[in-house]
Task: structure prediction
Amino acid sequence: MPRISKEKGESLNFYKYICQRIGSEEVVRVRRLTFVISDIGQNETIITSGSKGEGLNFNSSDLDIMFIDPYARVYESETEVVKKGGRLSFIMNTDETQPCFTQLYLVTHHQTRKLFFEDSGGFLNVLEMNQLRYVLSSEQYKQFCMSHYCLDNIPKKVHGPCITSENDEHDFVWCLKCDAWICQAKPWVRRPRTAWPSPELISKIISCGVLFVPIGCKGSINENIEWRISFSVAEKFLLFSFSHTQLLCYAMLKILLKELVEKHEDLKGLLCSYFIKTLMFWISEETDPSVWRPDNILPCFMASLKRLLYCVRYSILSHYFIPENNLFLLRFNTNNKEKIITILTNFIDKELIVLHPLRLYKIIKTSLTNPPNP
Result:
């Protein structure tokens, strides 16, 4: 049998195996539909994400729930403001922030710094004065949401922009929305690409606008009054457009990190799922969609893993929508970077030496102890 046929056979066998362990295309579709229906039922004020929202349901799967604040809207300039009774308007100010972050100034016709956040002791101040204007504090907003919107009998903690359940199974984040596609991300719309995402998908994405989550740029002198620009809705559309082979490669990268990297205490949290998703977006944009076939899944996966290794080695992973934001900037120190490089290099070398990916089978079997459920 020619070698190429054997390689394709290995890929097909592996594809069938992980479909059994992670879920077939139909099973993933059913899982997603459950959450999509739930989102629709909430009048577009709730967005589910995380592994479960993406259609993946293995042992470490999490569920992230985003709540869009119905009482506030964000705009890029005051000329775009649409006045609506009972809703506050905020203007983006990116003059003093890093790419992907902004401050949110209260539109001048709102002459109050107490807002509508009523507390048992009066009003909670979520605004701070900055350059003679009131700016919405991401830190105070998050604290307000934790004390007012979360049930008192549920243990919780703040984790980044999220309010997380004590067992880390659910992340809740309250966010603000801008209905328009912002200027910082407009180059994404027209940049050269192979064939993905399609023009139709791009149009759909930009019509959904962007979100703002309450967390500033780490180390910034204004960290507590900065907000991170979030493309969660766009990312959900992009991920849902993946072929099943793409989705399985994404899932395998997440599993591999959990089983190989996260086992080391000093490496925990360095390579999160968001980085893997961003990596997959870049690879997908640069690759012909015909490459992502069941009989080519092993080469696709190994190529994705090599790309991750490259990104870690050179400390560069550009944000998918705003590439000026390097997600790996100052992410690693010399020791943890070399440790991750060694782990990934050893795995790649061993997988390339043998045709049959025994180690990969073992890792997936270990991570997925239960069969997939819708």
